Structures are given as C-alpha cells and as structure tokens.
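Morning run. Coffee first, then this:
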Amino acid sequence: MAWGIDVETKFVERSFRLGRTFAPVAAALCGVAVAMPAAAQDGDAKGEAAKEKRPTVSRAAAPSPNATINLINLLVKQNVLSEEQAEALIKQAEDEAYVARQALRDASKKADGAEKTAAAAAEAVSPPGTKRVTYVPEVVKKQIREEIKQEVMAKAKTEGWAAPGALPEWVSRIRLSGDIRARFEGDFFPNGNDPFSAVNYNAINTGSPWNVNDLNPFYWPSYDTYQDRTRVRLRARLGLDTDLFDGFTAGMRIATGETNSPVSFNQTLGGSGGNFSKYAVWLDRAFIKYRPWEDVTLSAGRFDNPFFMPTDLVFNKDLGFDGFAIQIKSEVAPGITPFLNAGAFPVFNTDFNATLTAYDTVDVIGKFPSRDKWMLGAQFGGIFKVDSDIDLTLGVAYFDFTNVQGEVSSPCRADDAKDTCDTDTLRPSFAQKGNTYMMLRDIVPFDPTDPNEPQYQYFGLASAFRNVMLNGRLDLAHFDPIHIILDGEYVQNVAWDRQQVAARARANQLASSATYPFPDNEYFGGNEGWMGRLTVGHKELKELWDWNVSVAYKWLESDAVIDAFTDSDFGLGGTNLKGYIIGASLALGPKVWASARWMSANEVAGAPYAVDVLQVDLNAKF
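And here it is:
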C-alpha cells in the first residue's frame, strides 16, 4: 500500500514538472480532444437519421451529398453493379461507420475522465499559484511511469523489500563450485619384484599390534608388488564459499574417498562392499578466512595448502592443512612481489580421554601422557616480472615436525594383543610406504625361557623430520596463449642422522626373500629428494581443443619426507622412489577435459620394486 501511494505521488509531481515542457503539445491534443466529441455527436445524429431513412439505390436517383452513394449509383447505371449488390455495399459501409463512431465516443469519454482526474489530483497537491496542465500526453505518461518504476524498484532492491523474481540478498554472497573425475587406472608390475619387501606397517599401526615372533613372511600384511590390477575410480567434490562482512569469508567442501586418507579422494567403483553399494562422503574443507588488508590473509580450520608448491614432491596436491596460517604478499616495486607464508598445523592430537593404561612389569601405575604432533612451517619468496612475457617465482621453506619420531617405550609386557605401552601413540596414524621404521616397545617376556612367546609390536618412524625446501617456477609466455613452464623442487631432511637411523631400523621395506625373514638392520635409506617438470601448451584449459603436454623426473629417498603426505599416485604412493612421468591434457569444452598420464617408478635403494601406472581421466568442473 505504501508503495502504491509513493508511486501515485511521484506520478503527479512528475506530471507538473514535465507539463511546462509539453504544454504546446498538450494544448494541441486538447483541441483535438474537444473537437472529437463534437464530431462524434454529429456522426451519431446522422447515424440515427440513417436508421429512419436509408439512401436508396436507383438508376434514376438524384445526386446525393454522400460521395459513396453517388459512386454506387453511377456503378449501377453503368451495369457494373446490380441494385441488390449496391444496397449490400451501402449497408456494410454504414455498419462500419457506426462501429467507428462508437469507438470514437468511448475514447472521448475516457480522455475527459483522465483530464478531470489529473486536474483534481493537481488541485490537491499544488501550492498556490501553480499552473495546472489539464491534459498529459500519453508519451509523457509513459515516460513518467518508467522513471518512477525505476526509482522505486532501485530503492526496493537496495532495501531488499520488493524485488520481483530476485533471490534473497544472502544467496548472492554464496558461491558453489565442484568437480567430478572418472578415471581408468592400470597398475602393472614387471617381473623381479620382491613379494616380501613391502610390509604394510600402516595396516599394523592402525589395527592390532603384530606378533614379531611370527617370522613367516607370508603372514605379515604387505602391499601388492606383483599382481597387475585395473580399476575404475571416481572422485567428486562439492564446495561452498560465502562472503561474510568486513573481510571475513568462510567455506567448506565435501568429497568422496574410500577411507579418510589425507592424500586421496578416489573411490574405486565396485568397492566399499560392491553390488552397487553407496559410497562415503567426507568433510574435506571447513575454514574461516580474514583479510584485514588486501595483501594479508589469515586462515583457520581446514583449508588448501597455503604454501607455494609447484610439484607434489613433499605434499600431495589434494592435501588439506589443519590449523592456522597467514599469507602476506605485496608488490614493493614494479614487477617485484615478495611473499611470506607461515602456519602451525596439528598433525595428531591424543584422544582427550586417552584409555591407554601404563604398566610396569607387575602393577598398574596410571594413564599415559599425551603426545600431540605438530608441523610448524614458514616460507619466504618472491614473484618477479622479468619481462612482459617472463614470470619467475622462487621460494625457500622450512618445516619442523614435532613428536613424529618414534621412541622406545619403558619396559612393558606385550604378550597379548590387548596390552599397551607408553610410546604406542607415537606410531603414525596414517602412512603410505617408504619411510624407515623402528619397533616402539621394549617388551619384557612373561616367560624368558620360552623363545616362541608372542611379542606384540607397534612401529614408529626411525628418523626425525625437519625439511628445508627450495621451490621455483619459470613461465615463458612468448608464444601466448602457448606457455612453456619449468617447475622444480628440492628437499632435504636436515634432522636425519644415518647412524642413528641405522641403529634403530627394524625395516624400511628392504627385506628380501633371499635374506629371510629380514636383513639384520641393514639400512640403505637417504634424506634428499628433487623433481623437475616441463609443461608446454595452454596454461589453463578454457576453450575447446586447448591442450598441454608435460614430462617430469622424480627422485625421492626413503627418509627425505614423511611418506604419509607425498604423492599417492607415483609408485602407488610414498618414498624411496625414482622415475619419470609423461602426461597430456585436451579440453573438450569450457568445463570438460580429458587427460592421461604414464608413471614409471623404481626403488631408489634396497629390495627390487618397480611399478608402471597408467591413468586416463575424464574431468568436469562447475
């Protein structure tokens, strides 16, 4: 109701403002309006008379004041028309004239009513001395209506109280995004791999402890090293981001995955029970970000990798980071933009109500202390515009992992799978393969005279980890939109000590059937890794037939990085791997592309292990 009054008031006010401009036109139109009723009345009177006396048609008829009648009489005299045809034509003409006169009369009445209404409205709102326009041309009315409509609707949209067909304001602040990938994967093992070399320590550490006195290697859980496999896999992710206020944003994402693995969202079709069973969805991202200034971003929660990482040598490209991070980037001179990234990230948090109970050799003595694990990281670098078509990005980073190295427990009983010891929580909660492991428990036999008494063990990392990284990317756009991109990374674990690790080593997947069941603490590991990659083609696949190809080489020694967080595809995941990668991608449309990769990996040191992986993907994003 308030809107209607506002429109009416605006209409009247606009009428007077525009009246002065259109006064001559209005006067002319008013004259027409006055004349038209008179003409209509005269026509009506003649029509009534016609009803009483219709003009006759005759060959001998005298001339009529009506030109149409004279023309018809002439045609009758010339034998062009019969008298019956002429009478029919006269009747049709008079009927049409009558309809036209009625329409003219109705239009005149409506025009008179509109003038009176406008005059009355003007009297009500006009101040003394205001000149009134008694008639507003239709073109002026239309212009006024459009201007009022635009003003009122703009106000309604701003205030959010009346916007027909528009969504609520909060919807405009939300952005949905996602992607789907369908993959065919073939895993091919050449002859010569040692079937007993790849012990699955992750299966032991995430389940019941393992009886190390069972020396039969066939019973130890292990990774596949010789059975070729093919799989059809699916990855689906759906994300939501929203703007809050004053620089605050928030977001979340859900994704598929066979397990809660931090480095893979792949779901093997036919897995998870098979028979077309439904698949699990996991919370993959959930964060709040704050940008107090354009160059500073603060993040809290679970978010994307905040560090510049051109390859996945150290961290898988899909890995999410839990914790807190700050990113600072600012151009200090034309073409020179330094950046700083830093953060603190909880890797493992002991259960609040830790149920592990400590034992000495006889009595219960209390609960174990918590051993939380953290990663602290910082990176400094710069983006340099060397030339109009040359971009260079360099970075150096440092990552310190606390409480990830295993420690030998206090003497404890472990002749039953339910027994616990005080360093059990130092075992990795997730791992792939490649790192060197040590036994965590110092087991006191229940019967020292029985050499076959079970001894249940968990395994921890034999090395500490403090990584120093160098990162670089060179982007050559001389042939834009075709780019030539060089990526490179180098990493070294500066906390690694060969003698200390060798003394602790129980195994690092270097066992061999020739030295059944395990080598005697023989250690072949290392602490360095590097990767280089060349990519040629479109930097982004945006249009049909956009393409790129790449070739890369990777070398990653056993204890260079924590194997849980690195790439999960090359060599089927983990460390102690070297080899090459060839890939190509082709856009099938703006949001759809196909890609293929061939990855050939071999062991860096130790027992023979090699695997070739083929991946053919169909990708879509929205």
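Residues 360 and 412 are 6 Å apart (CA to CA). Good start to the day.
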